Each structure stands twice: as structure tokens, then as C-alpha cells.
Amino acid sequence: MTEEPLVTAVTAVTAVVTVIAVGNPYRGDDGVGAAVLAAVSESLGPDPRVRLVELDGEPVRMMQAWEGSALVWLVDAMSSDVPPGSLQEVDARRLDEGDSSWRGVGGGHALGLREAIEFAAALDRLPAEIRVLGIEGETFDHGEGLSPAVTHAVPAAAARLVAAIRRHLDPTH
Amino acid sequence: MTHDYRVRRFDVEALTRVEGEGGLIVEIREGELADVRLRIFEPPRFFEGFLVGRDHTEPPDITARICGICPVAYQMSACQALEAACGVDVDDDIRTLRHLLYCGEWIESHVLHVHLLHAPDFLGYPSGLAMAADHRAEVERGLRLKKVGNSVVEVVGGRAVHPVNVRVGGFYSTPTAAAMRALASDLHQAMDDAIDVARWVATFDIPEHGLPEGTALVALRHATEYPMLGERLVSTTGLDIGVDEYPDHFAEVQVEHSTALHGSMLAGGDYLVGPLARFALNADHLAPTAAALARELGLDAAERNPFRSIVVRAIETVHACATALAIAEAYTPPARAWVPVEPRAAAGCGWSEAPRGLLWHRYEIDDQGRIAAARIVPPTSQNQPAIEHDLAHLIGHSLHLDDDDLEAICEQAVRNYDPCISCATHFLDMRIHRS
Questions:
Q1: Is residue A12, in this structure, part of any structural domain at all?
Q2: Which end of chain A is more exposed for a tag (fewer CB within 10 A), N or C?
Q3: Which residues of B touch A10 (CB under 8 A)?
Q4: Is the ipTM of this structure higher than 0.85?
Q5: A143 and B CB contact within 8 Å
């Protein structure tokens, strides 16, 4: 915590691209989304066309966060059977078609990303493109800090997002 | 669900439209209710142990992570407890900003519960999503209202989720007058929407039911305000205590079927915290618009029907909008954003009214500010016994219903309390016995 935190009315800004990190930095590798978001922020620098936001997975907040954006990326930790630190990417509209490891993404409780997608679709509020980047976690124990494998994966995850964002903002890039 | 001709047993493995993971077991033998248990099986999260050894400045940020729906409640109770330990009173304008921040959280939480979690029960839909198809205008209105709640939390708290601008002693920085003017403009619209929502939910077909006789209603009380930040804890049974006296009157016990502790009054009997209790004990301090609307909708302080809690939440949303609007319109940036809070070896307690009810914190710190002990009592654990007994009472009057209808009304009754299981499961006292 710094003495000068960011206090801005970000809802007033309509971004072209929104990146949403979901997770809990006090639960080990569940904090990887926030770490990737910080790396993306550092790499991109301030850009009013890009909104970076950390959320808890509650669907209305997610839907309102991406309002007006054409491209949305969701970054979250995953727990499946691939090696820790592995990156996986999926079209969020096709979560049902993936294996079961995607089902908890974007919210640990009764409401999550799937509900947000369905709800937004029902209200015509889906962005043109919405994708999920999952980073396989190793430990979700209590406490701060990422495991070495997941720490190692953060720059690659951020680079992948930054490249996708730049491609979207400038297709000739 | 399983049943034979003598035994009806419901086992709702995972309750839907509640925050967190819990289930419900109901057993009826020979036509008589034999057992009701609200099962909470979400893993305990040990936050209190996690806080030990941390600095006294950290609980507002750490405890905000307990719940994505009510982080402000955790921050407010934590700040007040630590300020009490250090013998500090914050400036009046800092307290007013805290009140505003809390209004934002009440709006967000109540609107989410009313629209996505609870209204579908009354209108006959399996989910908020299904309801949205037929009630799009009402859902859009709810989303608009919730967005204003988000904005309040964002402007005062720094961001809408797990606010980062709260510190022990006040805030890291204070909103600009321009940001507050924009907020006031949004809140004018929100007032109209909130009033419409209250009139809408009051048209629902609400089951006739009352809490079991003897269930005490317990809420904070303030000399002039409807309590978010209160001064005394009062009850319908005559309780009137200060924050340090809470452990003398309330305890928590462990039960086999729940990873959350169960709250109990040492004097005996069930008690309930939350909107119904706040309204019963503080209706005289509602904002005038909210008070007039409550009268128009037929609510009075004697209300004890948990199914009408949806109307009370809507009234409280109007109150939160009116209070936030008044604060935003009168705002001038405070002279200072925080007051210094120097540590000393002491213990301190703090409390506030989370959207779901009383949230009590206690911390012990050393002279360097290191936390030696922490205790957090959230509303859902306090309400668990009362919820189970209310369900027993309800089922006792509903045995004529077929299994599907009985199961449905039980689930709806649980949602009357808007239980936040995520909050309730962070303080299991785990002991290992070796022999």
C-alpha cells in the first residue's frame, strides 16, 4: 500500500479493451491474476483505451467493468492436470465445451464467469470478443506469494496479453 | 432427495443463490419434523490466525479479502477496533466519509440480493438469469442502481472491489469535490430507481410467516442515524451494551455439521441480526423518504416475517441512497485524510452493521503494533441457529406441501437471510488431539 493510491472514477472512462484479473492474493497462486495485471500495466503504461481491473468474479461487476469494450480478457489461476505455470487460453463463450478445469474460473462461488456471460448475453451486453487466460497454479494455501513455477509464468502471461491488446488496438502492429 | 412412506428426507446438497457453499438437510419422521441442519461445508479460511503477527495497519486490507460482497464492513469494523485499541478518535468528516462508503456497499449488496438472488423466488423463476428474460426493465433498473453503489465505493474507497483507500485512522486520500458532485448527480437518479424497486418488491406474493416466538432481534443503535456505524448494541429483549461488552453477552459454539461457528446469547434463546432487526430497532432513524415509503408499503417496526426482508432491504437501499446523496451534496474535502494512529500495547473492539448484520472485531496488539490476537464474529454465523429454528418453525406449518414445494420454500426461506457463507467460514477453531 502506497501513500498515494489510485483514486479515480474509472467507471467514467469507456475503454476499448478491458482486462479483468480474478483471484485472491492471500491464497498463494490464486493471486497470479493480479500479478499478471501489474506486469501488463507496467508494460503498456497509461493508456485510456485499456482498462485494467481486479475483480472478485461477481457477475454484475464483471459485466459492468467490460461495458463498452470490444475486447475483454479475463485472467485467473487454474487448477487442472497440467504442470504449474502452464498457460491455457479459451474463448469465454465456449467454457462449456472445455474440460471441467475451466468451470470454476472467474469466481469461486455460486456465481461466476459463466453466469456473467449468460446474463450479459440475455441483456445484449456481451463484448465482441471475450477470452480467458488461465495460469495453472501449484498451491492455493493461505498466505501471500506465488510459487516459483507460477512466478516464472507471469512475464509470459503478461507478454501474451500485451501482444493481444496491441494487435487489437493497432491491427498493423 | 429420498423418502419412503414414513420418512421424508431432503438433502439439498448445494444451496443456490447464496454467497458461498452450503447445503440443507431436513428430515421428517412419522409426519413430524425430526431434524433441520443448515450445512456449511465451505473450507474454513483461518483469517484470524493469519492476522497474528501482522502489523496493526494491515487488517483493513487483509480482512477486506474475506468477502467480495461486504469488504467495507470488514474494513470499518477493523479500523474502529484498532483505533479503539490505540485510543484514537477519527475526525467527524472522516467518519462521514466512512458512512458514505458504507452506503455504497449497502446499495451494491442489497440490490444484488434483491434482484439476482431473491426476487426470482417470488416471481417463480429458477434464477436471476431466467427472470431477466421476462423482467428486463426491472433487472436493468437494478443494474443501474447497483452501478451507482459501485461508484460510491470506487470514489471513496479507490476501487469497487476490495477497496484500497481505507486505512486505520481514515483514508489514504479523499475524493475531490468534482468527483463528489458527479456522484451526487448519479445518486439523484438512484433515489428514484430505489423507490421504484421498493414499490416493485412490495407487490410480490409474500408468504405469511413469522419468526419463532422468543427470537430476539439484535442491532446497533446510534443517537441520530440508522446504524451502519453504531454506538450501542440493542435488542428487542432489552439488551443495551457497549462494544467491549459483546463477549459478556454472546458466544460462539462449534457444531458438527458446519465449518462456521454458531452464535449464541449467553442469556439463552435465539437471536437474529440483519435488516429485519435493524428495521425493528431503528425505523425511527430512517431517512424521511425511506420512512414514508415504509409506511406506504405497510412495514412497521413490529415486522417479524423473514419473507418480507426483501422489502426491508429495498427500504434500506432507499435510505442508503438518501444518506449518500445528503453526504455527497454537503461535501467539502476534509482538512486531513487520516489521523495518526500510534500503536500501544492494548486490546480494542469495533463493530458495524454489514448488509447482513452485526460484524464485531477484536484485536490485541503489542507496543510495536504487532497483532497478538484477532477475533472476528460475522453476521451469518450469528444467524445460523436462528435460521435453522425458523426453518423448523416454517416446516412445522408446511408439512402438507409436497416434497418439491416444501424444498422450494425452505430454500427461499434460507435466502430470506441472505447468508454469506464465505464470511462465516473463516474462523473455525481447529484443534488436534493426539493420544
A1: no
A2: C
A3: 154, 159
A4: no
A5: yes
Instruction: Tell me how crowded residue B341 is: count the other CB atoms within 10 A of its CB.
Output: 21
Q: Is the pLDDT of residue B64 over 90?
A: no
Pairwise CA distance, residues B231 & B243, whole Å: 8
Q: Are B314 and B197 in contact (CB under 8 A)?
A: yes
Q: Is residue A133 assigned to a domain?
A: yes
- DSSP result, A11-64: GG---SEEEEEES-TTBGGGGHHHHHHHHHHHHH-S-TTEEEEEE---HHHHHH
Cβ–Cβ under 8 Å, residues B160 and B153: yes
User: Does residue A8 have a pLDDT over 70?
Assistant: no
Burial of B319-335, coded b for 16+ CB within 10 Å and e otherwise, reads: bbbbbbbbbbeebeebe
Q: Is B68 in contact with A111 (Cβ distance < 8 A)?
A: no
Q: What is the extent of the structural domain holding A67?
A: 17-169
Q: With beta carbons less than 8 A apart as the criterion, state whether A116 and A108 touch.
A: no
Assess if residue A7 is contained within a domain. no
Q: What are the chain A neighbours of B179 within 8 Å (beta carbons)?
A: 9
Tell me the CATH number at A133. Answer: 3.40.50.1450
Question: Which range has the worst mean pLDDT, B133-142, B143-152, B381-390?
Answer: B381-390
A111 to chain B, any CB pair closer than 8 A? The answer is yes
The verdict on A42 touching B (C-beta cutoff 8 Å) is no
Q: Which residues of A touch B159 (CB under 8 A)?
A: 6, 10, 53-54
More confident residue, A115 or B372: B372
Q: Which residues of B touch A113 (CB under 8 A)?
A: none
Handedness of CA B50, B52, B53, B55 (dihedral sign): positive
Which element (helix H / strand E) includes B344?
none
Contacts with A109 from chain B: Cβ below 8 Å = 19-21, 422
Verify whether the Cβ–Cβ distance A110 to B21 is below 8 Å.
yes
> Within a domain: residue A97?
yes
Nearest-by-Cβ selection for A119 from B19, B61, B129: B129
Q: Cα(A121)–Cα(B274) distance, rounded to whole angstroms?
A: 34
Which of B17, B154, B158 lies nearest to residue A110, judging by beta carbons? B17
